[in-house]
Amino acid sequence: MKTFTHIIISMIPLGVGFLAGVATATGINDWYRYLEKPVFNPPNWLFGPVWTVLYLLMGVTIYRLLIKPPSPERSRAMRFFWIQLVLNGAWSFIFFNAQQLGWAFVEILLIWIAIVGMISTTRRVDKIAAYIQIPYLLWVSFASVLNGTLWWMNH
């Protein structure tokens, strides 16, 4: 039963991704398409597959943390995990629904800090669980530059 619970919990990032996708879908074909965009803006179709992989990797990370024995280090890593996930889920609503590019930029910088914290604390508990989050950190680094550039170009 415990393993089943761990698997269910590890699917929560996909649920957050689904909700973020709903928020994104409402704005991407509306006001977003009219924004001035930088030359390095990826095509819209790329975001879904990339985020799906990243949310799956988040699920693997939380699963690997959950199966480790309880410890203060594991608790810190899990706190950072949940913080970054909540921030991640909120970004789409700030950017696409509220259309607040500046606040979304501030928020994505907080996500980046939380991801660094998650990787750093998770590394002390499970190196694999930490290292599989590096693509997420790289993507959010790119997304931060993109968000900041969109804000600068369109305010």
Walkthrough of the structure:
- This protein has 155 residues and is an all-alpha fold.
- It is 80% helix and 0% strand.
- Helix 1 runs antiparallel to helix 3, helix 2 packs parallel to helix 4 and helix 5 (101-123) packs antiparallel against helix 7 (134-154).
- The longest helix is centred in the middle third of the chain and has 26 residues, at 72-97.
- The chain is elongated and about 50 Å long.
- The termini are far apart.
- The model has no long low-confidence stretch (mean pLDDT 94).
- Belongs to the TspO/BZRP family.
- Keywords: Membrane, Transmembrane, Transmembrane helix.
- It is a multi-pass membrane protein.
List the helices and strands and how they pair.
Elements: H1 2-10, H2 12-28, H3 44-66, H4 72-97, H5 101-123, H6 127-131, H7 134-154
Organism: Taishania pollutisoli
GO cellular component, one term: membrane
GO biological process, one term: tetrapyrrole metabolic process
Write a short abstract of this structure.
Its main location: membrane. This protein has 155 residues and is mostly helical.
Dominant shape? elongated
CATH superfamily label: TspO/MBR protein
Could you report the average pLDDT, rounded to the nearest whole number?
94
Number of domains: 1
Q: What fraction of the residues are assigned to beta strands by DSSP?
A: under 5%
Write down the CATH topology: Ferritin
| The CATH top-level class label | Mainly Alpha
Relevant terms:
Ferritin, 155 residues, single chain, 7 helices, 0% strand
